[in-house]
Amino acid sequence: MSVGTVKVRLRLAENHSLKGKRQVIKSIKARVQNRFNVSIAEMEDQDRWQVATMGIACISNDGHQVNRVLSQVVEFIAHSRMEAELVDYDMEILPGP
Fold first, then answer.
1. Pick from 43, 42, 37, 44: which is nearest to 58 by CA?
2. Pairing, β 2-11 against β 51-60
3. Can you list the positions of beta strands (E) in the chain?
4. Mean per-residue pLDDT for 9-22?
5. Which residues contact 49 (CB under 8 A, 6 or more apart)?
6. pTM for the full predicted model
7. Of 10, 29, 37, 76, which is least packed with CB atoms within 10 Å of its CB?
8. pLDDT at position 13, please?
9. Of 9, 25, 7, 29, which Cα lies nearest the Cα of 17?
10. Is the dihedral of CA 90, 9, 31, 77 positive or negative?
11. b/e for 52-88, b at 16 or more Cβ within 10 A?
């Protein structure tokens, strides 16, 4: 069993409130979960309304599949027409025994 995580940092330049940020994050989470069947949550910067950091996790029997899914998630977020700009990401894959 392999476990992969990716930490995604987003910039919400057009956002002007925490309420607006919550709406954008909720939309991103729903789209990513529905399309890729991964776990996703906001993990840092909850009090900053123009920055969001999200954690995404994937588990599979195949490490290559984990890498492929998480790479697709990053590409999806980066190229989606959402109100967020991908600033940075950090991926880590832990191979199984």
1. 37
2. antiparallel
3. 2-11, 39-44, 51-60, 85-94
4. 84
5. 12, 15, 16, 17, 18, 20, 21
6. 0.84
7. 37
8. 80
9. 25
10. negative
11. bbbebebbbeebeebbebbeebbebbeeeebbbebee
User: What is the reported pLDDT for 16?
Assistant: 79
Question: Structurally, what CATH architecture does the domain formed by 2-90 represent?
Answer: 2-Layer Sandwich (3.30)
- Cβ contacts of 94 within 8 Å, gap of 6 or more: 2, 3, 4
Task: Output the CA angle 43-45-46, nearest 5 degrees.
Answer: 80
- pLDDT tens, 20-71? 888 888 888 999 999 998 999 998 877 787 888 999 999 988 888 889 999 9
Cα dihedral value 30, 35, 36, 39, nearest 10: 10
Rounded Cα distance between 80 and 84, Å, is: 9
Query: What pLDDT shows up at residue 5?
Result: 93
Q: Which two tokens stand for residue 37?
A: 């069947």
At residue 97, the pLDDT reads 66
